[in-house]
UniProtKB/TrEMBL annotation:
SUPFAM superfamilies (UniProt xref): cAMP-binding domain-like, Winged helix' DNA-binding domain
The UniProt record lists the keyword Manganese: no
Keyword field: DNA-binding, Kinase, Transcription, Transcription regulation, Transferase
InterPro entries in alphabetical order: cNMP-bd_dom (IPR000595), cNMP-bd_dom_sf (IPR018490), HTH_CRP (IPR012318), RmlC-like_jellyroll (IPR014710), WH-like_DNA-bd_sf (IPR036388), WH_DNA-bd_sf (IPR036390)
GO BP annotations, alphabetical order: regulation of DNA-templated transcription
Alphabetized GO MF terms: DNA binding; kinase activity
Domain HTH crp-type: 159-233
Short name of one Pfam family: HTH_Crp_2
Domain of life: Bacteria
Descriptive protein name: cAMP-binding domain of CRP or a regulatory subunit of cAMP-dependent protein kinases
Length: 256
């Protein structure tokens, strides 16, 4: 259960709202092993803010100037929109992910009720100045994010609807598996068809048909917030998967 903290209710937060210090030591934090601040030796690094599903964190965080956020519990996603209002999901954020405010107008929204560890940028710079390992950890995170975005662009440009959905499901399952949030057969994945469609450049109908085909063929199901992988080999073939055969293993070579 997430610790008590400041509840951001709606799309704004009072400028004088107080955040709750993190309970206990950060060393005991469940997401610390795969979060940016795993290399920080301090007992406490930030404070906790809680948001409800559907709240746009970037707007809510206007009251918390120059801060960075580590997702402590729950799911979030970043998105942008075209001038005519069509949404493009840019990424899904899982516990341990660093979420930063950007200047390009992208929104960050809580997909479920979520909790964030809030740290000022000044303090982040202070930590980096004292510990080069933190700067390296930050750079490694950016590299992983860039690699994930390259694969997402490949999906948008070269994979069919079924391949796009299959690849995203494998990506999310692998990320959760490495964090201890999944088993070999599946995981809690609270995505709706609209999230998949908006992340993959599909209509909701195309996303639904891809999921229905996977279910009919006994490959995978996504139902009521639960992903079940029934035939991983077939799912990887559908996705044109070049990542690890199982999360945590070395990537297989790409056929040329």
């Amino acid at each position: 259960m997430a610790p008590a903290g400041c509840l951001i209710d709606g799309e704004t937060m009072s400028r004088n709202a107080s955040l709750t210090p993190l309970p206990g030591s950060c060393a005991a934090c469940a997401v610390r092993p795969f979060a940016l601040f795993r290399v920080v030796p301090q007992a406490r690094v930030g404070e906790i803010a809680k948001v409800r599903s559907g709240v746009r964190l970037v707007r809510a965080a206007e009251a918390i100037h120059d801060s960075v956020f580590t997702l402590y519990a729950g799911w979030a996603f970043s998105w942008t929109a075209t001038p005519d209002g069509r949404r493009q999901v840019l990424d899904f954020h899982l516990p341990g992910d660093l979420v930063e405010r950007t200047e390009d107008g992208a929104e960050v929204e809580a997909l479920t009720d979520a909790s964030f560890c809030v740290l000022s940028r000044d303090r982040l710079c202070e930590f980096m100045g004292r510990d080069p390992g933190l700067a390296m950890s930050y750079a490694e995170g950016l590299t992983r994010d860039r690699a994930r975005m390259r694969e997402r662009l490949t999906s948008l440009g070269r994979r069919d609807a079924a391949g796009r959905v299959a690849h995203l499901l494998l990506e999310l399952h692998g990320r959760l598996m490495r964090r201890g949030g999944a088993d070999a057969r599946g995981a809690a994945v609270p995505l709706k068809q609209a999230h998949l469609a908006d992340a993959l450049g599909l209509s909701v109908e195309h996303a639904n048909r891809a999921l229905a085909a996977m279910r009919k063929d006994g490959i995978a199901t996504l139902n009521k917030g639960r992903l079940e992988i029934l035939d991983r080999e077939a799912l990887e073939e559908m996705a044109g998967w070049s990542g690890p055969a199982q999360p945590g293993l070395l990537a297989r070579p790409v056929a040329v």
